[in-house]
């Protein structure tokens, strides 16, 4: 099947983020003109590369043509670096998940590390939702190949439902500590997506209903132009800060989740997916496209300008909003918002995961913005070989 313009656009972008001398994709690709534009950070390079490979599993033939190596072969190189990279727990879940989708063998040292980190009862108690959600996604994916992973999948599923769930439908970021009161948009995606995957393999209506409830709550909190807010007060189900509004949530992670909800008939899921995606095409507060056609990437986010965008200030603002009940608002004034001049390779991996094999959203995958952008690299290549 001919790749869609969106897939071609994304593969071209990943070429820019690729570091062939390392066999990895970069932590950051800067859009401010610095040289070299790629910034490496070992633990993130490996994790992001695994996320890219998960996406490439959806379009393996096009990926081989783009990079000259089959994605399953690239996986072995990336996975061999995981234990030495100081990676976080969630990276091991991504390794399990990507390996299953690529039909690749998980290295023994990764299997041993996952078994060790989950061996003790209540081992997941201090974990983040990202840790648990990705381990669940990985364990479910591996359970399709070997029953030895089923127990781990059950444990992770139980932890999400028993320790991270709230009455609002949102999942909390941790079971203990200060972050148990809050959750990011990514928290909701990792937990709900993994529960959908668990239900689809094992048939678990309780897990599926919890994921449905989360999705319905997220849809009710989506911004007027499709923005997926960054930060929530989990128990009350309120947005406590919209910013940053991350492009990957709009074009990659939300679609990955919402496609499961659409199959289950969750009201408004399809409309929320399309509305959210159109945010990156220009239907946003700034009224500008987040695409960077010359290098086929999507700028990372829209954020407050200056000191107000610092993470500690963002967290303080969220805490004040949570304690006072003050509603979080979009700024509505473009002069106070800026575009973050970078892209991270994993963001493009999520795009491929969501749309690499898609035929259901031609208004997005074949949008003229991608068709025009993906045609330019082909024209340059043809001129170079003529």
Description:
This protein is mainly alpha-helical and 386 residues long. The chain has a domain at 1-117 and 346-386. The protein contains 16 helices and 13 strands. The protein has helices spanning 5-17, 42-56, 60-67, 71-79, 89-102, 108-117, 129-143, 150-164, 185-202, 205-221, 247-263, 269-280, 311-324, 345-355, 362-365, 368-385, and strands spanning 18-19, 24-25, 28-30, 38-39, 182-184, 231-233, 238-241, 245-246, 291-292, 297-298, 301-304, 337-339, 342-343. The protein has a three-stranded antiparallel β-sheet with strand order 4-3-13, with no helix packed on it. It is globular, with a radius of gyration of 20 Å. 51% of the residues are buried.
- N-to-C SSE series? HEEEEHHHHHHHEHHEEEHHEEEHEEHHH
Helicity range: 40-55%
What is Rg? 20 Å
Number of strands: 13
Structural class: mainly alpha
**Unreliably modeled segments:** none
Overall geometric form: globular
Strand order of the largest sheet: 4-3-13
**Number of helical regions:** 16
**How many strands, which pairing sense, and closed or not: the largest β-sheet?**
3 strands, antiparallel
Q: Approximately how much beta-strand content do the residues carry?
A: 5-15%
Give the overall average pLDDT. 94
Distance between the termini: 26 Å
């Amino acid at each position: 099947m001919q790749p869609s313009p969106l897939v071609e656009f994304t593969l071209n972008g990943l070429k820019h983020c690729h570091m062939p001398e390392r066999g990895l994709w970069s932590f950051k690709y800067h859009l401010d003109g610095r040289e070299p534009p790629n910034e490496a950070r070992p633990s993130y390079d490996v994790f992001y590369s695994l996320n890219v490979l998960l996406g490439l599993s959806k379009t393996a033939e096009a990926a081989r043509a783009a990079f000259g190596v089959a994605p399953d072969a690239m996986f072995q190189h990336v996975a061999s670096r995981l234990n030495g990279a100081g990676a976080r727990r969630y990276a091991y879940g991504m390794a399990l998940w990507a390996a299953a989708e690529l039909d690749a063998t998980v290295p023994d040292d990764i299997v041993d590390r996952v078994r060790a980190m989950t061996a003790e009862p209540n081992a997941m108690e201090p974990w983040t939702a990202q840790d648990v959600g990705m381990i669940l996604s990985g364990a479910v994916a591996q359970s399709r190949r070997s029953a030895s992973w089923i127990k781990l999948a059950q444990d992770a599923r139980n932890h999400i439902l028993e320790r991270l769930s709230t009455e609002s439908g949102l999942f909390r970021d941790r079971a203990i500590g200060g972050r148990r009161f809050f959750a990011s948009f990514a928290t909701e995606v990792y937990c709900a997506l993994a529960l959908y995957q668990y239900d689809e393999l094992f048939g678990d209506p309780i897990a599926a209903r919890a994921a449905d409830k989360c999705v319905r709550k997220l849809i009710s909190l989506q911004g007027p132009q499709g923005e997926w807010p960054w930060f929530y007060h989990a128990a009350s189900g309120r947005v406590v800060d919209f910013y940053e509004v991350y492009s990957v949530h709009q074009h990659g992670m939300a679609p990955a989740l919402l496609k499961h909800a659409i199959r289950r008939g969750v009201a408004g899921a399809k409309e929320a997916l399309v509305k959210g995606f159109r945010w990156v095409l220009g239907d946003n507060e700034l009224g500008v496209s987040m695409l960077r056609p010359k290098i086929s990437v999507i700028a990372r986010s829209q954020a407050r300008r200056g000191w107000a965008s610092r993470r500690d200030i963002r967290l303080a603002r969220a805490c004040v909003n949570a304690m006072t009940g003050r509603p979080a608002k979009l700024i509505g004034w473009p002069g106070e918002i800026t575009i973050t001049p970078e892209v991270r390779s994993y963001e493009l991996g999520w795009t491929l995961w969501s749309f690499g094999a898609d035929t259901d959203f031609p208004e997005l995958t074949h949008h003229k913005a991608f068709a025009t952008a993906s045609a330019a690299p082909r024209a340059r290549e043809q001129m170079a070989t003529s």
